[in-house]
Amino acid sequence: DMGPDALILSTRCYKPDRFGLLGKEIVEVLAGYGGDPLLAKLPKPLIPLYQVLTEQGVRQDIVKGLLEELRERMERAGIRGGKALWALLARLMMDRMPGIPREGPGRIVVLLGLSGVGKTTTALKLALREGKAGREAIIVTLDAERIGGAELLKLYGKATGITVEVASSREELLKALLRHSHKDLMLIDTPGISYHHNGWLSGLRDVMSLNLRVEFHLLINASMREGEVSRLLRRLKGLPLSALLFTKLDEASSFGSIFNQTVTTGLPLSYFTTGQRVPEDIERATKLRVVDLILKISEGREG
User: Fold this and answer.
1) Who contacts 175 (Cβ-Cβ below 8 Å, separation ≥6)?
2) Which pLDDT tens digit goes with each residue over 8-36?
3) Is 129:236 a contact under the CB 8 Å cutoff?
4) Which domains does the chain have, with CATH numbers?
5) What pLDDT, on the 0 to 100 scale, is given for residue 102?
6) Contact at 8 Å (CB) between 32 and 50?
7) Among 98, 134, 246, 270, which is least packed by CB within 10 angstroms?
8) What pLDDT does 27 receive?
9) CA atoms within 13 A on the CB side of 41
10) pLDDT tens digits, residue range 43-92?
11) What is the pTM (predicted TM-score) of this model?
């Protein structure tokens, strides 16, 4: 079943050609997933893979490239389907993703994103995670104007032993960072990004002048539409983004956007958040995790 928009016009055997598999049936599929003629003829074993990738929201141009390479690889390796085919697709997907950087001490991590994406909660999770590992962390919040936001964060910090500072200007921000530069991790919690007024962004550029390792992590709701993600990335074009951090995976029904964004932007993934519990619901992103979210290999694939 390829969904209500799919139409299989015919199923018949073709003579082997450079796109086919010797002795294998090729299924002619003209589906409503964009009607791409390059995807109109697929070896039968590739149909379920195409279906899963498409339903998960992987972009059609990326799906096309993956299946073209997969078709060549499976023919060379003599793979006819089953788990071996899913494993090969998983490897090709991981090969397309940028490497995920290792964590290190002495970092400044700036958390950027729209209002409600979970920046403050993520900052708390990361800070507590450092504490559990025996390392020191501090949170500096720039979100002083949000009613009760800074006060609530400071109360939570006091209850958990996390140092929280409020910086109302770029001068206060730089002083706070220099004062705590011996810490293993310095987290900057920023206001929600607006598509119109973001004067505080210029202050973040000053942070790059410090002789410290600065990373800009863009938080994206895993359910956010791709067009909105692209618009957000354009808004932040002036900042040297370091990584993408996807939040609220527990609320998402598809995960192709995660793969699309890391492949098309070339930005590595840093973390995933998977719920509201602090600090439990955060995990280090891995390529294998992304692929499994999309292909569900850990749930068992027989082909």
Assistant:
1) none
2) 433 444 444 433 433 344 444 444 444 55
3) no
4) 6-96 (no CATH), 107-296 (3.40.50.300)
5) 78
6) no
7) 134
8) 44
9) 13
10) 888 999 999 999 999 999 999 999 999 999 988 888 888 889 999 999 99
11) 0.84
User: What distance in Å separates the CA atoms of residue 20 and residue 14, rounded to the nearest whole number?
Assistant: 8
As a whole number, the mean pLDDT across the chain is 84
The encoded tokens of residue 246 equal: 């996807």
Residues in the chain: 303
pLDDT at 275 over 60: yes
The Cα-based distances of 259 to 53, 161, 281 in angstroms read 10, 36, 21
Whether residue 37 is preceded by a cis peptide bond, meaning omega within 30 degrees of 0, is: no
**Cα separation of 273 and 121, whole Å?**
10
26 strand-pairing partners? 43
Hey, what amino acid is at 249? Answer: L
248 and 220 Cβ atoms separated by less than 8 Å? no
Contact 249, 222 (CB under 8 A): yes
Say whether 274 sits in a helix, a strand or coil. coil
Which strands, in side-by-side order, build the sheet including 26-31?
6-11, 26-31, 41-43
Phi, psi (deg, nearest 5) at residue 135: -115, 160
User: Under the phi-then-psi rule, with left for phi > 0, alpha for psi from -120 to 50, and beta for the rest, what region is 299?
Assistant: alpha
